[in-house]
TrEMBL record:
The keyword Hydrolase applies. Gene3D superfamilies: endopeptidase domain like (from Nostoc punctiforme) (3.90.1720.10), SH3 Domains (2.30.30.40). GO terms for molecular function: cysteine-type peptidase activity. GO terms for biological process: proteolysis. This is NLP/P60 protein. InterPro entries: NLP_P60_dom, Papain-like_cys_pep_sf, Peptidase_C40, SH3_16, SH3_YKFC_2nd. Belongs to the peptidase C40 family.
């Protein structure tokens, strides 16, 4: 069994992830741009969502401004800096994506990131981020019914003009923006707060709706993952600037039109269970403490011949590994299939 994005969790999560309906009313918040209430849009290339407000280190500054510089942030951190993020970040949200504001503390807001399913919230994945990285402009909302450009390169530049000489913002893989007009080599898109900008057509694929993304094969999932070989690990990462293990699997599946839960422990509960002897490329492999009998802590994508592609930990990068030789084999806890 597999689920396409347009109906996967509409049915399942209503029962499984149902929490109390007594949500506190989202508080009004203010930024320099607008009065923010309830639904907003990410206004930076990638917004990093933290477990608490105001816990930034100096090295994290460039990730929390508007504009944010994710490339500078991820490349400037030492191994110890990256380890310092463990347990302090929740997830990330991409440019133009939707969040619901739940609470405010000073210049920070607690949000729920839509389309990142979790038992933590029935709205979306919750956590804290700077309010300055959000916007809510009617001109952008009015374009969301249009076809959209899906960024399919690991990262892609958004340009100020058609001739692509003036770079505006470096976007991540899997970013979606409404298409205003298509040309032979360029696509004109709407942005959350800066009007119309340009993308190279070679960096995107245009779809009329999410349902028009072709159903992938397992090999499609594997080939998507291979685009990120050698990309450094980032705790809570869901972008072409860095992934954690489940952010990697979540993102490559979503870019192929299949929405799965955000975290590995929850990904392990859905899809179709697969016996180890029946593994096929694209299946998700799960690994757990206590020699596979404890809680799930890691996920990878099976690529065949006893190997997987995954984003293991802060000391390394997206890579192919032999499951047994890597040491993960003794923690094997099962597999799930989300494609045919």
């Amino acid at each position: 069994m597999f689920w396409r994005k347009r109906f996967v969790f509409v049915l399942l999560l209503a029962g499984v992830f149902f929490l109390s309906a007594s949500w506190a009313m989202a508080k009004d918040i203010e930024t320099d741009k607008t009065d923010l209430t309830d639904t907003f849009y990410i206004d930076v290339s990638v917004a990093t969502v933290w477990t608490k407000p105001n816990i930034l280190r100096e090295v994290d500054t460039t990730s929390a401004t508007n504009p944010a510089d994710l490339r500078k942030w991820t490349t400037s951190m030492t191994y110890q800096d990256k380890l310092g993020l463990v347990g302090k970040l929740e997830t990330q949200a991409l440019y133009g994506s939707k969040v619901t504001v739940l609470e405010r503390q000073g210049d920070w807001v607690k949000v729920a990131v839509h389309n990142q399913f979790t038992p933590k919230s029935d709205v979306g994945y919750p956590g804290w981020m700077p309010a300055a990285q959000l916007t809510k402009e009617k001109s952008y909302e009015n374009q969301l019914h249009r076809p959209f450009a899906l960024v399919t390169s690991p990262t892609a530049w958004l340009y100020n003009e058609k001739h692509k000489k003036n770079e505006f913002l470096e976007l991540s893989f899997n970013t979606r923006l409404p298409v205003m007009q298509e040309f032979e080599n360029e696509v004109l898109v709407a942005t959350p707060s800066h009007g119309k900008k340009w993308l190279k057509k070679a960096d995107v694929t245009v779809y009329n709706t999410e349902a028009d993304i072709p159903a992938p094969t397992g090999e499609d999932i594997v080939n998507t993952g291979k685009k990120f070989l050698n990309l450094p690990y980032l705790w809570a990462g869901t972008s072409g600037f860095g992934f954690d293990c489940s952010g990697f699997t979540y993102t490559i599946y979503q870019a192929n039109g299949i929405l799965i839960p955000r975290d590995s422990s929850v990904q392990a509960k859905y899809g179709t269970p697969v016996d180890r002897k029946d593994l096929q490329p694209g299946d998700l492999l799960f690994f757990a403490y206590n020699e596979g009998k404890g809680s799930v802590h890691h996920v990878g994508v099976y690529i065949g011949d006893g190997k997987m592609i995954h984003s293991p930990n802060s000391s390394t990068h997206v890579r192919n590994d032999d499951i047994e030789a890597s040491g993960f084999g003794k923690e094997y806890a099962g597999a799930r299939r989300y494609v045919k």
